């Protein structure tokens, strides 16, 4: 018996195991079963480059478009940052900010107003991260966590542990960076995982909060327009948040979740080409509406790990 003959069964088994461990979804999903096509609601017409809508409890992916395409995530990547760093510090821990804490922040970054020399509680920094998408708050938390590159490595390890295989972190705040990417599937996974954490939910679902300044506490509003009910958009019924984002490379991005009738639907929309900045929220709203109507009436196209 030759070496080639001996290795062939082992190689086949290895290839089968690799395929089984790699979650894949079709680029464009037909979500209706043959006997249910008339009853199943029609998917909305969307312009987003990629999107996913899923049932949060079961993890069933109800429909998707280019779910694994690697795209710039913008600040939706802060969900993975929170999953990685949030458990590491008590909310009441205080930190005095130095110039090194804010070194390297990108030009034009969104900020909540962290100032050098100021002392902040960890919960203040998380509120600035979730509500105002403050890259300055992320910088401070990352430095407390061991540094920018160390935090990026931890986030990449966390992504792999969760089963997210199309995410690579270079800049933990989601700021555009070379070789940084995620996917609608992975971001939906991060959003769903965050819903398991009480602190994560308390921040991501807050329409407004307060942030300390030298002149006192100032009110800050959530950048998620479906949550805040701002810029001509109504607050979505049962909205839970999760995170919105924008950069030049990524365009507008959002991960949203909503609860209705004891069920939670989570959806991710990446870079729609219509409707300017409100377009991403209108398409997210349409996916949530469809998800609630379709749950139990369509055949899932995959499952979040």
TrEMBL record:
Write down the InterPro entries for this protein, in alphabetical order: Beta-lactam/transpept-like, Peptidase_S11, Peptidase_S11_N
Name the catalytic site residues: 75, 78, 133
Q: Which Pfam families match?
A: Peptidase_S11
Q: Name one GO biological process term.
A: cell wall organization
UniProt-annotated binding residues for substrate? 243
Q: Where is the Peptidase S11 D-alanyl-D-alanine carboxypeptidase A N-terminal domain?
A: 41-271
Q: Which UniProt keywords apply?
A: Carboxypeptidase, Cell shape, Cell wall biogenesis/degradation, Hydrolase, Peptidoglycan synthesis, Protease, Signal
Signal peptide residues on this chain, from the entry's feature table: 1-29
- Stated family: Belongs to the peptidase S11 family.
Tell me the protein's name: D-alanyl-D-alanine carboxypeptidase (Penicillin-binding protein 5/6)
Q: What organism is recorded for this protein?
A: Streptomyces indicus
Q: What is the lineage of its organism?
A: Bacteria, Bacillati, Actinomycetota, Actinomycetes, Kitasatosporales
């Amino acid at each position: 018996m030759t070496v080639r003959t001996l290795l062939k069964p082992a190689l086949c088994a290895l290839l089968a195991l690799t395929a089984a461990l790699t979650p894949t979804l079709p680029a464009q999903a037909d979500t209706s079963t043959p006997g249910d096509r008339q009853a199943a609601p029609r998917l909305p017409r969307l312009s987003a480059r990629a999107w996913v809508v899923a049932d949060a409890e079961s993890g069933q992916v109800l429909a998707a478009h280019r779910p694994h395409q690697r795209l710039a995530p913008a600040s939706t990547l802060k969900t993975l940052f929170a999953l990685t760093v949030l458990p590491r510090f008590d909310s009441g821990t205080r930190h005095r900010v130095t110039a090194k804490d804010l070194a390297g922040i990108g030009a034009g970054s969104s900020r909540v107003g962290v100032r050098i020399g100021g002392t902040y509680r960890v919960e203040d920094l998380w509120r600035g991260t979730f509500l105002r998408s403050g890259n300055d708050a992320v910088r401070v938390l990352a430095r407390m966590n061991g540094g920018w590159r160390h935090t990026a490595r931890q986030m990449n390890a966390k992504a792999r542990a969760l089963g997210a295989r199309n995410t690579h972190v270079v800049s933990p705040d989601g700021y555009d960076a070379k070789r940084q990417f995620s996917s609608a599937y992975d971001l939906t996974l991060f959003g769903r995982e965050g819903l398991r954490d009480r602190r994560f939910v308390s921040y991501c679902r807050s329409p407004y909060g307060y942030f300390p300044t030298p002149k006192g506490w100032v009110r800050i509003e959530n950048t998620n327009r479906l949550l805040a009910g701002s810029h001509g958009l109504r607050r979505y019924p049962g909205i839970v948040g999760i995170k919105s984002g924008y950069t030049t490379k990524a365009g507008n991005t959002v991960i949203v979740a909503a609860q209705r009738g004891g069920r939670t639907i989570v959806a991710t929309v990446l870079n729609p080409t219509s409707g300017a900045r409100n377009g991403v929220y209108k398409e997210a709203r349409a996916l949530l509406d469809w998800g609630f109507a379709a749950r139990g009436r369509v055949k899932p196209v995959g499952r979040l790990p």
